[in-house]
Amino acid sequence: MPPFICSGFLHLPGGWWCSFNFFRPQHIHSSSERILAPEATDQFLWILIVAAFGAFFAAFGIGANDVANAFATSVGAKALTIKQAVVLAGVFEFLGAVFLGSHVTKTIRKGIADIECFQDNPGILMYGNMCVVYTTGIWLLLASFFELPVSTTHSTIGGIVGMAMTYRGAGCVVWYEKNELFPYFTYLELI
Question: How much is the pTM?
Answer without folding.
Answer: 0.67
